[in-house]
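Team,

Forwarding the record for the chain on the shared tracking sheet. I've put the sequence and predicted structure together so nobody has to dig through attachments.
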Amino acid sequence: MTTPTPAPGAASAAEQYGLFNALHQGGVISWTVFILLVGSLFISLFILLSKWWEQQKIIGQAKKVRAGFWSAPNLRDAATKLEKNSAYRQIVDDGLLAEDQHDKLKDPIDQHEWINNSIARSTASIGAKLSGGLPFLATVGSVAPFVGLFGTVVGIYRALIAIGASGSASIDKVAGPVGEALIMTALGLVTAVPAVLAYNWLLRRNKVIMEGLVAFANDVHGYMVSGGAVRPSFGLTKAAQPKVAATASGVQTTKA
């Protein structure tokens, strides 16, 4: 039993068509588009993984805050329970620093306003750090399809020029070059779709994380300006929770 031998023209056609042959035929423009798209894809994946790891660290820190931060006798002792250089530790440290600096101010300003501004500035800096890299994902998601389309247009233009020079417009002459050119459009979509999905997913997670950080910053501010009388109830032992007692006049007072 003999194996059928492929036609000589079929083997040569298979060797002529393909991605790298299309890049070779397209020249500098095709190679530039290809490198831009592939590079953007890998950078997008790197941003996705690095931001996910950064978010997971802050989520883990939030669990430690809920576990026992507010059960400490004072804010400085509570800060030692947090990891150094963590987001929550930064807010506490900046609040304590603002409290220490208030007495050194020459112009009078309310202590609660000074501390609030400092804590808000600290929270905003954390939010800016979390948002790093997201503009790149948004740019790739919106631009990559057009970059791929540009590569396709250039590829089809070169294919039509070659077809015109050969004087033949048969299907075997048109299908291969046009199919190679369309690879750039597909590559642009492959680059853009993960970038858009990663951007939306990371943005949603950032929003949830920032809501927790802002709530924590408000709790820290309230604790500091009240001298420790105001603190959230979660994470406190029953003995550490504020007690409510009734005075002779019937007005309830809170005991720390």
